[in-house]
């Protein structure tokens, strides 16, 4: 199709006229957008992240060789250990050990444990017993202390649970020994 004769081709001068007439839009884009981006990047608070690696062991303490009788529940599962890892118990121990209840971030909080649990995230790799424990916050030194203390308190809690289990096994063995001795005496 042939264009009508009143339509002409645009020349470079026509393009320059269009650009000069719209120069304020171009200047606004070149100046305002970088200013907005700079303001946003400088005004948003920095959030730091630290990671601790924990190895979950799913074994039963060997006490007698009859663990299937003593420990009816079996070995602690990965889910059990993950629940202990992000439990209020461990969170309260971390707050107490680091004295975070007097920290400015936790003073205004109605529930400091809930505040610290909100800083925590678990990253699980499929097929692995290694769990990555991630803590996020505004102060890099504080979150590093929290992550390290959290790992220590988790290990202590897990050890306490294992000691309780071993004590139960020991008492069970004592009962079995008493029963066997009574039968032997009869």
Give a verbal description of the structure.
The chain has eight helices and three strands; from the N terminus they run ααβαααααββα. It is mainly alpha-helical. It has a three-stranded antiparallel β-sheet with strand order 1-3-2.
Helicity range: 55-70%
Terminal CA distance reads 118 Å
Q: Please give the count of helices.
A: 8
SSE string, helices as H and strands as E: HHEHHHHHEEH
Low-confidence stretches: none
Query: Which sheet architecture does the biggest sheet show?
Result: 3 strands, antiparallel
Task: Give the strand tally.
Answer: 3
Sheet-strand content, in percent, reads 5-15%
**Structural class category:** mainly alpha
How much is the radius of gyration in Å? 33 Å
Mean pLDDT comes to 81
Overall geometry comes to elongated
Q: Strand order, biggest sheet?
A: 1-3-2
Reconstruct the topology from this structure.
Layout: H1 12-21, H2 23-43, E1 48-55, H3 67-70, H4 78-85, H5 88-98, H6 104-107, H7 112-118, E2 120-124, E3 130-137, H8 140-185
Antiparallel strand pairs: 1-3, 2-3
Helix pairs in contact: 5-7, 5-8
Q: Which properties best describe this structure?
A:
186 residues; mainly alpha; 3 strands; 60% helix
Can you summarize this structure?
Helix content is 60%, strand content 11%.
